[in-house]
Design goal:
Elements: E1 7-11, H1 16-32, E2 35-43, H2 52-81, E3 86-93, H3 97-108, E4 112-116, H4 128-138, E5 143-146
Parallel strand pairs: 1-2, 1-4, 2-3, 4-5
Helix pairs in contact: 3-4
Length: 147
């Protein structure tokens, strides 16, 4: 059986595990001359009335967008140096992160999803521990979980 990988998706949340997953995704994309898509999902709760704490957490989500842009800039440079076709996506969503990544992967026809085992925790941050479990359980594509 010959492995065909033409599109790779990597989830990045700023954790060490996600950055290691990103390096694996770069190497795989380089080896298979595959398009690489880096996705960061920021959970933004949908409430018309928020407590002060929730407002702070939403504000933290906005600062996460700035951090994600910095991650993407660095990742884009690495991809260019390795002649990898890279697309970056920053998604704000009110739905669970694993659901958003799986939906994106199906829509884009992803051949391989690469994720870290654990991410950063907290409402305003992306959680990859439970996200990794959800993606592995429900993905229609193969999943590489990087420790």
């Amino acid at each position: 059986m010959k492995l065909a990988v033409s599109k790779v998706l990597v989830g990045i949340d700023g954790s060490d595990h996600s950055f290691r997953a990103a390096q694996y995704a770069l190497e795989i994309s380089k080896k298979y001359v595959a398009k690489l898509i880096a996705v960061t999902v920021i959970y933004m709760p949908a409430k018309s009335r928020m407590s002060q704490q929730e407002a702070i957490e939403v504000g933290a989500g906005l600062s996460e967008m700035d951090k994600a842009k910095t991650w993407f800039e660095s990742f884009t440079q690495s991809a260019r140096q390795n002649k990898i076709d890279l697309k970056t996506e920053l998604v704000n969503s009110q739905r669970p992160v694993d659901y958003v990544i799986l939906e994106y992967a199906e829509k884009e026809g992803i051949d391989l999803i690469v994720i870290g085992t654990r991410g950063r925790s907290g409402l305003s941050k992306i959680v990859l521990g439970s996200v990794a479990s959800g993606i592995v359980t429900y993905s229609h594509s193969p999943v590489l979980v990087v420790k």
